[in-house]
Automatic annotation (TrEMBL):
Residues 549-627 form the AMP-binding enzyme C-terminal domain. InterPro entries: Ac_CoA_lig, ACAS_N, AMP-bd_C, AMP-bd_C_sf, AMP-binding_CS, AMP-dep_synth/lig_dom, ANL_N_sf. This is Acetate--CoA ligase. It comes from Roseiflexus castenholzii (strain DSM 13941 / HLO8). Residues 46-99 form the Acetyl-coenzyme A synthetase N-terminal domain.
Length: 650
């Protein structure tokens, strides 16, 4: 495909001689953060930040007081059993009370909460009143299926409103949800259902992606065939194509929702602030995905305050986070965050370039989107088609833009800023992780921006770049990104594996700082520049995949004896997967086998994990302890010096 990227020539009126984008005075004046800063008696963000890290209990109590509690907390933070921190101890709370119930008492009752457009052009919208009805009805359905507080319900759905209702219904009755991204395949789904021990799976017949049907129910059927814990499967009819329904196990969502038990009245269950809200599986450096646990209280406080200050949500805004709800970004900033803030959130089902590369821009125009939050991979993907597509549309409703998932290259940043934001919308480059719950290093609308930098830590967050011993690195020196004190949105543990939580995140640093697994550098202005993952994780189009998972998928093929996967730069995906495979004796290296192995990985893990290339090799570089030295493969592929080879197997 020919690449038609024109580096925008417009120099924004806000760009200074150093290439720093200064915030427009009217944005600063109207920003939520400015109002808060003034209310605390400070005249600069720096002073406010300094206060927030010196008095985190006061700051977080302020943030918690923005929400409604059934019973107040006794203590903001209990750090008596590090790193198992507890927040808002003794408080009784439910995130759904804050996301829905409390709005019903105000004029927001009739405000649009969720506007949805399907890839096929279908349109649905729900007010807060409407969302409450759907969620309450479905919560009653779940209760009738025997779902209890503490259970984990697995959800495997396309990007449709029922996904949001299902998540909220679980939370409303004190059950935890585990959303498995709809792009994952049989084995990934089976493994996650087994770890969560789910009795109930919620899915759909299928979803639309690029005009084609994704066969979700079919994949779910295969996974359920090997999931003894599942007793009930609830299926939303989205595509209407034929799917198998197993009597006694599978039920249509719409049938259940029309039963008399599905009344629109359901009490929200008050739970402890530390009660689990959801499990979200994410890739780590070993094969088994980690079930990151988030809780009701601190998580709600954290995502609401980060959204409020960073994306500056205003009552009349239409906000669009274009992520998938199956990713943490969707959990925090499509579902819970915007609803807690009483915002109008827009959700789109399909591909950004379907049927044409102007789909997103036409949606911005059609719905009058004010805030657009997306990922560098999507920006690069759309930039490839040139400026004519966005230029055909009125994008003047946009006020703020956002980016998440991987470092954004300055070219993509400038294109997003100039061509989409017309040089007037600041870009919030938000660095965070599944584990952190919400934004950690991020600008706010008053921050001077440097393209490619996530700028500085959020209020109350102490981030640093350190060496292996935990000593701070100097300006512009590479090191490990750490967080030096706890925050309310942090993960609480890894499901069924608390040791892994301690070892993976807290032990590598002798001072007990949270180690993020990213390398970074901090410049002379205290701006953070994220370099990338230091562990064996590859980010493909912003999705986090473990090299070990890809390798196990390859090795599960009868022709493969050993495999190594690395990430190499890719123009659109950011990073693409390249594999090195040792075949079993007697198996011939053919192009057909290469294709078959690519398809095999896509089948096992999902299309997102399909390798870009597979190279047949006769040996792999390994350490004496048998660990594959992926950095050596990577250096070779990039023609770079492989560095220290002292641990290479002799
Ligand atoms: C939210 C999310 C976490 C990893 C993280 C880092 C990378 C995320 C970034 C970024 C540079 C940003 N990452 N945001 N890198 N700039 N603004 O992505 O969660 O899927 O758990 O991935 O993503 O490497 O460690 P998750």
């Amino acid at each position: 495909m020919s690449i038609d990227v024109v580096e925008p020539k417009t120099i924004s009126q806000f760009e200074d001689e150093q290439g720093i984008y200064q915030p427009a005075p009217h944005i600063v004046e109207q920003a939520n953060i400015t109002a808060y800063m003034r209310s605390k008696g400070f005249s600069t963000w720096e002073e406010l930040y300094q206060w927030s890290i010196e008095h985190p209990h006061l700051f977080w109590a302020d943030m918690a007081n923005r929400l409604e509690w059934y019973e107040p907390w006794e203590k903001v933070l209990d750090d008596s059993n590090k790193p198992f921190y507890k927040w808002f101890v003794g408080g009784k709370f439910n995130i759904v009370h804050n996301a829905i119930d409390r709005h019903l008492k105000t004029a927001r009752r009739n405000k649009q909460a969720l506007i949805w457009e399907g890839e096929d052009g279908s349109y649905r919208a729900f007010s807060y009143f409407g969302i409450n009805r759907e969620v309450s009805k479905f919560a009653n359905v779940l209760k009738s299926m025997g779902v209890q507080p503490g259970d984990i319900v697995s959800i495997y759905m396309p990007r449709i409103p029922e996904l949001v209702f299902a998540m909220l219904a679980c939370a409303k009755i004190g059950a935890a949800h585990s959303v498995i991204y709809g792009g994952f395949s049989v084995e990934a789904l089976r493994e996650r259902i087994a770890d969560a021990q789910s009795k109930v799976l919620i899915t759909a017949d299928g979803g639309y992606m690029r005009g084609k049907i994704v066969e979700l129910k079919k994949i779910a059927d295969e996974a359920m065939g090997h999931s003894p814990s599942i007793q009930t499967c609830i299926v939303v009819r989205r595509t209407g194509h034929n799917v198998e329904m197993q009597a006694g196990r599978d039920y249509w969502w719409h049938d259940l929702m029309s039963l008399p038990i599905a009344t629109a009245r359901c009490e929200t269950v008050p739970v402890d602030a530390e009660h689990p809200l959801y499990i979200l599986y994410t890739s780590g450096s070993t094969g088994k995905p980690k079930g990151v646990v988030h809780v009701h209280g601190g998580y709600a406080v954290y995502i609401a305050s980060t959204l409020y200050f960073t994306f500056d949500i205003k009552e009349e805004d239409r906000y669009w986070c274009a992520a998938d709800p199956g990713w943490v970004t969707g959990h925090s900033y499509i579902v819970y965050g915007p609803l807690i803030e009483g915002a109008t959130s827009f959700m789109y089902e399909g591909a950004p370039n379907y049927p044409y590369p102007n789909r997103w821009w036409s949606l911005v125009e059609k719905y009058g989107i004010n805030i657009l939050y997306t990922a560098p991979t999507a920006i690069r993907g759309l930039m490839r088609f040139g400026d004519a597509w966005p230029n055909r549309h009125d994008l003047s409703s946009l006020r703020l833009l956002g980016s998440v998932g991987e470092p954004i290259n300055p070219e993509a940043w400038r294109w997003f800023y100039n061509v989409i934001g017309k040089g007037r919308c600041p870009i919030m480059d938000t660095w965070w992780q599944t584990e952190t719950g919400g934004f950690m290093i991020t600008p706010n609308p008053t921050t001077p921006l440097k393209p490619g930098s996530a700028t500085r830590p959020f209020l109350g967050i102490q981030a640093d770049v350190v060496d292996e011993q935990g000593h701070s690195k100097g300006a512009n020196e590479d090191g490990l990104l750490v967080i030096k004190s706890p925050w309310p949105g942090m993960m609480r543990t890894i499901l069924r594996d608390p040791d892994r939580y301690v070892n993976q995140y807290w032990n590598s640093d002798p001072r007990g700082m949270y180690t993020a697994g990213d390398s970074a550098r901090k410049d002379e202005d205290g701006y953070f520049w994220i370099i990338g993952r230091i562990d064996d994780v590859i980010k493909v189009s912003g999705y986090r995949l473990g090299t070990a998972e890809i390798e196990s998928a390859l090795v599960s093929h009868p022709a493969v004896s050993e495999a190594a996967a690395i990430g190499l730069p890719h123009e659109v995906k950011g990073t693409a997967i390249h594999c090195f495979v040792i075949l079993r004796a007697g198996i011939e290296e053919t192009p057909a086998l290469e294709d078959e192995l690519k398809a095999h990985v896509a089948r096992e893990m999902g299309p997102i994990a399909r390798p870009e290339s597979i190279k047949f090799v006769s040996m792999l570089p390994k350490t004496r302890s048998g660990k594959i030295m992926r950095r050596v493969l990577k250096a070779q592929a990039l023609g770079q010096d492989p560095g220290d080879l002292s641990t290479l197997e002799g």
